[in-house]
Amino acid sequence: MERRGLTLHIALFLFLAGCILFAGCVGEETGPQAPLPTATLTPTTTPTAALTNDGAVSFSGAGDQKTVMPLLAGVHLITLEIEKSDGSEPGVSRVSISGEKDAIMVEGNYTPEVRSDAIIDGHYRWTYAFMLSEKADATVEVSQTAPWKLTFGFPEMINGIPPQTFTGVGNKATPFFMIPAGNYSSQITGENLTVISVWLMDYNGKFLMDGDSVAPLPFHELRNDDFELYVGDYATTVPVTIKEGGNYLFNVVCDGSWSVIFSPVE
User: Which of 18, 34, 70, 74 has the largest CB neighbor count within 10 A?
Assistant: First the structure.
């Protein structure tokens, strides 16, 4: 019952946050955005702050931690690395970022069937892209029992157009890639999961919308007849129309393994 409550909470929160922050269709380009510059952290508890070689900002800790950091308006990428030690499992991790006008919260988790596949160099690692509408001294909170490191940077970019194939285990923001205007097919598959969502975000931080829902796949759960979550597989193919070409990335929220094949429709 605890897992069910957490899942419903994140589903509602992500949907409402997406509608508030990113409602509307793909907007016009406002010019290139620079990667996140160097910032100085002002801890409100005791996380260890550090600057990475590429100018991104990170802080680390264990258990629940909270800090305040200055963040510019625009698109940001968070990377949460969770240390695997003593045979412990990571459990649900939660990251929230809030300013005067923006509030983002995302949870990461792995089903037991995919945990071993999610380990890279002794760490679990998941990413998520989000947008701040204005510069802010943002309050950042992390909830995870194991030692962790949270890094703020800017999404990667690749020089490619569809067809493109992306795969992963757990939450992941793909690199930005160019999508010309036109009609496309988004083939989404997942294994050993209970929840999945796949959202297209443009270079200005706006989600592609299909009516009132994010596209191509709003938050989806696997539930049985008794409305209980279960671990299973999922597959769907969704048509996607890009009205204005530009750079886009996929934000995938999932607790299993997944693949997205994005192809033009002839």
Answer: 18
Region 2-153: CATH code: 2.60.120
Give the start-to-end residue ranges of the domains of the chain.
Answer: 2-153, 164-264
Per-residue pLDDT tens digits for 235-248: 999 999 999 999 99
As a whole number of angstroms, the distance between CA 99 and CA 97 comes to 7
Is this model's pTM higher than 0.85 or not?
no
Number of residues assigned to the chain? 266
CA 104 – CA 109 distance, rounded (Å): 17
Structure tokens at 5: 């409550």
CA 250 – CA 259 distance, rounded (Å): 11
Query: What class does CATH assign to 164-264?
Result: mainly beta
- DSSP secondary structure code for residue 54 in this structure: T
Is there a common fold for 2-153 and 164-264? Answer: yes
Residue type at 45? T
* DSSP E strand boundaries for 63-102: 65-71, 74-83, 93-98
Q: Return the amino acid letter for 109.
A: N
- Distance between CA atoms of residues 60 and 38, nearest Å: 17
CA angle centred on 64, ends 62 and 70, rounded to 5°: 95
